[in-house]
Design goal:
transmembrane; 3 helices; transmembrane helix; mainly alpha; membrane; SNS_sf; 74% helix; 68 residues; metal-binding
Length: 68
């Protein structure tokens, strides 16, 4: 069977092609995957930046918006 990323990019896309308005559902599906990946990246970056901020690795002269 197919599992992992193969499930998302192979099996789900084949199922979507069989649905009515398949181009619309395909676009929405890949936008959803993009948003999920983007939010995961923000979580990973935050997991690295917060401990570095706690250790005061960044200069105080940097605005907080630059770091976060």
């Amino acid at each position: 069977g197919v599992e992992g990323t193969g499930l998302a990019f192979i099996v789900f896309t084949e199922a979507i092609t069989k649905m009515p308005l398949s181009p619309l559902w395909s676009v929405l599906f890949f936008i959803m995957l993009f948003c999920l990946g983007l939010s995961s990246m923000f979580g990973n970056i935050e997991g690295v930046l917060v401990p570095l901020q706690d250790l005061k690795v960044f200069p105080k002269s940097w605005p907080k918006e630059v770091i976060s």
